[in-house]
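look at this stuff:

>
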Amino acid sequence: MFLKTTNSTDDCFLKILLLFLIVFNTTQAQEIHTVSLNEAVKLAKENNKKILRSQLEITLSEQNIKERKDLRLPDIELNGEYSRITNITEFKGSGFLNGKEVTKAIPEIYQVNSTFKMPIYAGNKINNAIKIANQESEIAKIKTEKTENDIELEVVANYLSIYKMMELQKIFEENIKEEKSRLKEVQSLQKHGTITKNEVIRAELQLSDRELNALTNSKNIKIALHDLKTLIQIPENEEIAIDTTSNLDEMNSLDQYDFYLEKAFANEEMRIASQELNIKKTELKLVKGNYLPTVNFFGNYGFYYPNYKFFPPNPYLYTLGQIGVEASFDISSLYKNKTKVAQANTKIEWQKMQSEIVKEEIQDQLFKEHTQYQEILEKFVVVDKALALADENYRIVKLKYLNQLVLITEMVDADNALLQAKYNKISTRLDAVLKHYELLHTAGIMPNEI
């Protein structure tokens, strides 16, 4: 009896412990990390893989500069050789392999020598190669800046999209409560015979439609939150939510178009295009360097055995060194390099045209966004007035409906109009924030902090 009681107590204790662990782990897994817009942008800039990759490209470009600078350093080689040779056989007769005469040779040959060569002048090719590497490094830095701004805008757009859907979800939930209350009223009126079954069905359909919209919207929120989590590199097992308690700046101010246009002509895309043109011009100088001679300072020194500078060879170890200047000129470059020069000039013209195309695209995009932002700001008064009218219309129609003066179809229309007006007001405010960021992004003046 005693043993049985003890086992029962132990089993009970283990079950309680297991239950506690399950509850604890569930609580930990369900912990939600609420992020503000500013925090989301900061996390993305610190952790986003595209930004980290672009920073690695800067490192690679800096290493490329060092590699090009190493071309100025001398090339130094150390060589060693050991071999055995046969005797020298000569055939001094008139016929083939006739009159054989053998001269004994020293059978072992070995040598150790070192050589170095340092460029003095190479048609300025090394300097131009270093210059191109520096220009490519500048492009890598600008691309990193552009990547950061692109990710920042993507985070803002994703965040505001979630914010908008969450506000819409609140409207749906409020509307569903209203629809449920109305359904009860309609069912009560139908029991008293004052309205038909058709109106009850219409009320049920309206409620069902709102519930489906709310369900779809809630799933879209989850998808958008997951996308945001990927952007800012929050762990997969951690849940996040956005901070809807803080007021987002509507940024009502709008500067003149020319202000943004002046800034846009110095944005990341324009600076990249400018650096690409500089590279093409430097490449032309590099190609033209093929017309010029190459001058190197060189030297060598070695130990040799035996001394085959005399014949028969002397069986002695000897040393020999040499130092001097060598010059070379590729005569074939006078006719082979013309096509390369023409090609380099064509690339310059192509890049100039590309820069003009980029400039026009930026100008068109900026004009579009400036005009759209101005339009959204002008909508503020309209949507506010529309909401006031829809609210008043809903109040009047609802009163008439309760007094059986209008059909439920008019009630549904008034309800839909009010819901749309509420959403339009919220949506317009958030659209203004996003459009302002898009305008700043195109102008290349994204804020460091939001």
